[in-house]
Each structure stands twice: as structure tokens, then as C-alpha cells.
Amino acid sequence: MNLKTNLLFILLLLLSVAAQCIFGNFPFAFFAFPLDTILALLWIALIGYGYKEKRHSEAVRLWLSPQCTCWTLGWFLAGCLVIGLFPQLSAQEAAEKSGLFSRLGCYNFMSSWIFVTGLFGLLTHLGMITVRRFFTPGRNRWRFMLNHAGLWLAIPSAWAPSRWNPPYARPPDRYSPCYIR
User: Is residue 160 over pLDDT 70?
Assistant: First the structure.
């Protein structure tokens, strides 16, 4: 299982790097309101079906393995380091940059294929272990379920659009006037 998990995540990383170099950033505009909700519900249903009906298949065992935890957390932490180490620019400003880091989407990393693939893997793994615990009887089942469901909602919430956080809003800087009422 360890070799298969390693091969899966190396293949996912190489495919996401190739997609980033060929297509540019991930097209979030395609996933507008009704489609994103439908796909999320379908994804949750597939995770539940995969564990309940196909529990002993290679794919489900792979997504539940401890190696998958290491890969997904490592990928997510590496992505967060890239976000912290490179200045995150708007799509227009990032398109003006040149070089290898620009091709890999490091200047607008939260919308790169590499980060989206890692986030999707992390959330799939987190969903699978949450569903596994749901179907396992035990004393602390609901505490585990609520903690992991909260994580499952909190991690992607930074990429969800909000009415209070419009895309044209910018944080105040030291030169902008501050009005206190």
C-alpha cells in the first residue's frame, strides 16, 4: 500500500504541475453557484458510497492509509509555505511575471492546479476518515465526527466567496483614512 500511495501522489503532483504549465490557473469561474453545490454534494455522496459499498477496494484503502495522511498534510503545508514565501498577486499582476515560479503559479498559488489538487486530496482523505468513524461504533464517535466535519468545512472556507468579502475589497493600509464611529 505504501508504494501505491507514493505513486498515486507523485502522479497527482506531476499531473497538476503539467496542468498548471499548460492551462494556467484553475478556472474557478466555471464552478459558479449551482454547479459547485451539486458537485460538492455528489462528491460527499461518492465518499460515503465508496466507504459503505467498496470498503475493501484498493482506492478506498489507499485514501484511508496513514501514508495518505502524510502526503496530504505535507502537500497542504508546502502549499501554505509557498503562499507565505511568495507575494500573492492578483491574476493580472501574476500574469505579467515571468520565469519558472510564475509558470508554476507561485504568485497566485491559491488558484493554481497544484494547490487545488492538494486541497482536494486533503479534503477527500479527511472526508473518508470521517465517514469511516461514522460507521464504526464507539464511545467518542460524535466528538470525532464533529471535530473532523468542522475541519472539513473550515479548510476550504478561505476559497468560498462571501458577501462580506467582495473581490474588490482590500485591507486598509497606513495611508488610507480610518473612520471610527
Answer: no
The stretches of the chain forming alpha helices (DSSP H) are 2-23, 33-53, 58-63, 66-85, 91-96, 100-103, 113-134, 141-154
CA distance 130 to 32: 27
C-alpha cell belonging to residue 3:
508504494
pTM (2 decimals)?
A: 0.79
Spatial neighbors of 123 by CB under 8 A, at least 6 apart, are 152, 155, 156
Which grid cell sits at 40? 460538492
| Dihedral sign, Cα of residue 44, residue 50, residue 52, residue 56 | negative
Buried-exposed string 72-99: b where 16+ CB fall within 10 A, e elsewhere: beebbeebeebbeebeeeeeeebeeeee
**Inter-axis angle of helices 2-23 and 113-134, to 10 degrees?**
140
- pLDDT at residue 85 in the model: 92
Rounded CA-CA distance 11/53 in Å is 26
Q: Kindly state the average pLDDT of the residues 39-56.
A: 90
User: Are 107 and 101 spatial neighbours (Cβ–Cβ below 8 Å)?
Assistant: yes
Residue from 161, 181, 179 nearest 37 by CA: 161
- Of 126, 164, 156, 118, which Cα lies nearest the Cα of 20? 118
